[in-house]
Amino acid sequence: MSFPTRLRFFSLFCVALTLAALGQTTAKLQTSDTILTLEAGSASPRLASLTFPGQPTWENRASESLIAFVEISGKQAPLNWTFNREASQISEQQVAFVYDSATPHLRLTWEWRVRQAYGPIEHLIRIENLEAQEIWIPMQDSLAFNWQIDPQSPLEHFFVEKGANTPSPIGTHRVALTEGYSWIGTSSTYGDLRDDEPREIIPWSLVQRKDAARTGWYAGIEFSGRTRISLTREKNSLQGALGLNLDPGPFRTRLTPGEVFETPVVFLGGFRDGPDGAGNVLRRWVRAVLGNPETWKNPNYPLVVNNSWGGGMDINEESARRMIRDAAELGVDMFHIDAGWFRGVGDWYPNPQKFPHGLAVIADDAHQHGLRFGLWVDWTQAGLSTEPGALNARDPKVHDWMVTDLPADWKPEPFKGQTIDLGAPEAKQWAQQEVERIVTDYHLDMLEHDGYLVAHGCDRTDHPHAAPDPLNLCIYKSWGSYWVDSSNSTDVSYHAVRAYYDIYSTLRKNHPGLLFEVCADGGRMVDFGSAAHGDYFSITDTYDPLSNRRAFYDTSHVLPSAMLESYVEKWSTPRIDNFRYMLRSGMMGWLTIMIDTSSWSPEQRAEARREIDLYKKELRPLIRDANLYHISPRPDGMHWDGIEYWDAHRQGGVVYAFHGTMEQEKTHSFALQELQPSARYRLRYFDHSSPDRTSSGRELTERGLQVTLPLPNSSELIFIEAETN
Ligand SMILES: [Zn+2]
After folding, report:
1. Burial 685-704 (b: 16+ CB within 10 A, else e)
2. Cα–Cα distances in angstroms (integers) from residue 266 to residues 90, 322, 496, in the given order
3. Cα(488) to centroid of ligand 1, in Å?
4. CB 332 within 8 A of CB 305
5. How far is the CA of 72 from the centre of ligand 1 (A)?
6. 424 Cα to the center of ligand 1, angstroms
């Protein structure tokens, strides 16, 4: 970074500290997109306002609602919070207002921090038990606000679903936020487990004014446990809250002497230019703040992968070696063994019939072919194997880690067992050692976790989390696992998720460069907490071209494209155009091919090689670094859809164009974004569906980029480059 750049960097931060007559302390934190004014009242703090520079301010009328009591020895004790000016800290990048309660003795820290010169600002609340005995605290939201609004002002609410299981027909929601609007969106690690539950959101929401600059604010949650975001509009008020999920309740969590409760970290940012304007800042911020620098340092990230699930559970040494040779020939970066390699669920040792020489020799073979080696492990699932080293649900030593007593006839499914509660310290310790052993012994470059990693609920009374309410306890079975629903479910997830984060932080420290795939039954754990602890997400569990494009369309509003993995599975491709369409539907982010590639015809092989080469040379740099625009409505499979990547530094980009099943719609125009009206651009149609030509930025923005594809289920990639002369 050159010296003048650094000066600019720091000039973006400005902090004001004023001691007003009423003893109020005010501070300001700022990035290029977000200005927050923060006030310390005598009994509670307040986010006073949020502004996108140069645009109208959102004024907040509500002080932060701090917990009003704790429970000690079964009795409620009220809290009186008092601002502690001496202990509070204000710096250019952080504000921490401290509040104390004398009796019972607790300390609360209300913290905001700037992590980059641009983008949103983070917030969390810490509550420390300074008593000499155990206390119980009720729900403390991460953030609650009450924006003062003009009752007449038109507002829009924008949010996206997870691609869990199968992307729904809607996925990306753009809703008029009118008088009386009342909404709650929830997220957990096991969304859409049951059909009677509403679809989960990626824990994030955006509210936009319908003004010319399309400005507003957005907020998200950096936590994978049970969380919720709420929004209500009534007259001149827009109220909302972000934090742990209150339902089912009442929530309570234990604090041992000296222990600290931390609310899930949330971020809050201003934006302009609508959801894509917000997304282009947020994705960059996620990469810089939450992403793993070791991972992004590798110019080959995101990788091209060949995954063994195309052959199902039948993987063995011979087929693995064949897939490795084939993957290397195709130009793939990593060979990834999916389920089927192990002795049994919970028994994460190579099946001796399938892998008589173990797994390390397979990893070494991949390495000799210039490939990385990745492995699927459902490492929180117990089974019934009695082999040494196996996690056996009937073993008296581990029996208590199960979330409930299993019936005598319980059996695991072929690759699904009973989730253990990672929040139990001994279970966490076992899991830490087990993943360490797996990574080391099998020479892994990538570890994928799948299944339901975090317990859904737990009826144990001797775990650190709260006990369930025996009068409100529901136990049911799904996917070979028992699940518990009770008043303590949110607290169970709070402890288990923190244990999961600890386990992966330690593993990452011990193995720099090791990659983590966050799967959780395809797209159930897509949130900003797992973004901070993993390297990429399986974004859906349905792998046809339309589902892949839908899940990408939704998820790419908030997370870096490089982190968004599409599994491309076998699909009917009578023509080579359909084959390209299938591959490219998974080539907008991280590409994993999940097809037995030996089934491909020579023509398909040649085409796949060419596409992988194109991906690595021309698409991957844009996927990593470029801005992304959703230049069509969400894919419906019938009409056209497309996305645009535009890299302002290179003055180049690409449009992915997809033609659905409607045969009569042979031509479509995509209105492009971010081009200079007066500049001229060279257009290169990669498949030569149209002759290459040049066009003005004005034409491409206003009349659009015209693409003609006569065949249904076909595609084109149009590379765009600014003319330099
Ligand atoms: Zn438990």
Report:
1. bbeebbeeeebbbebbbeee
2. 19, 46, 19
3. 9
4. yes
5. 22
6. 6
Angstrom distance (rounded) from CA 404 to CA 383: 14
CA of 458 to the centre of ligand 1 (A): 5
Mention every residue, 6+ apart, whose C-beta is less than 8 A from residue 408. Answer: none
Ligand 1 mean position, distance from CA 344 (Å) = 24
In Å, what is the CA distance from 604 to each residue of 307, 335, 578, 588? 18, 20, 10, 20
The CA 451 to ligand 1 mean position distance, Å, reads 18
Q: Please, are residues 643 and 553 in contact by the beta-carbon 8 Å criterion? A: yes
Gap from CA of 501 to ligand 1 centroid (Å): 17
Give the DSSP per-residue string, 205-248: EEEEE-STT--EEEEEE---SSEEEEEEEETTEEEEEEEE---S
Task: Report CA(423)–ligand 1 centroid distance (Å).
Answer: 6
pLDDT over 60 at 8, yes or no: no
Q: What is the pLDDT of residues 460-471, one digit of tens each?
A: 999 999 999 999
Contact 659, 711 (CB under 8 A): yes
- For ligand 1, the distance from its centroid to the CA atom of residue 403, given in whole angstroms, is 6
**Please, which pLDDT band fits residue 24 given cuts at 50, 70 and 90?**
low
Q: What's the CA-to-centroid distance between 540 and ligand 1, angstroms? A: 28
- Which residues are registered as beta bridge partners of 372? 334
Residue 522 alpha carbon to ligand 1 centre in Å: 24
Predicted model pTM: 0.96
> Contact 591/564 with Cβ under 8 angstroms?
no
3-class DSSP assignment, residue 500: helix
Describe the strand order of the beta sheet including 680-685 as a list of residue ranges: 627-630, 641-647, 652-659, 714-722, 680-685, 693-696
Q: Rounded mean pLDDT of the chain?
A: 94
Distance 476 CA to ligand 1 centre (A): 16
Give the pairing of strands 18-19 and 25-30.
antiparallel
Task: State residue 668 phi and psi, 5-degree precision.
Answer: -145, 150
Tokens of 70: 């704790």
Between the CA of 443 and the centroid of ligand 1 the distance, in Å, is: 32
Strand-pair category, 121-129 with 266-271: antiparallel
Contacts of 11 (CB under 8 A, 6+ apart): none
| Phi, psi torsion values for 657, nearest 5 degrees | -115, 130
Strand partners, 720: 653, 683
What are the tokens at 539? 């974004």
Spatial CB neighbours of 39, under 8 Å, sequence gap ≥ 6: 24, 25, 26, 27, 45, 46, 48
- The Å distance, Cα 402 to ligand 1 centre, comes to 7
pLDDT, one tens digit per residue, over 418-453 is 999 999 999 999 999 999 999 999 999 999 999 888
Task: Pull the structure tokens for residue 172.
Answer: 């990306």
Q: Which two tokens stand for residue 626?
A: 């470029």
Helix (H) or strand (E) holding 593: strand 590-594
What string of H, E and C letters represents the secondary structure of 78-130? ECCCEEEEEEEEECCCEEEEEEEECCCCEEEEEEEEECCCCCCEEEEEEEEEC
CA 271, CA 34: separation in Å to the nearest integer?
8
H-type helices in 600-652, by residue range?
602-614, 620-625
In the structure encoding, which two tokens stand for residue 218, read together?
A: 């957005």
In the structure, what pLDDT confidence band is assigned to residue 195 with cuts at 50, 70 and 90? low
CA-based R_g, the chain, Å: 26
Residue 397 makes CB contacts below 8 A (sequence gap 6+) with none
| Cα-to-centroid distance, 459 and ligand 1 (Å) | 6
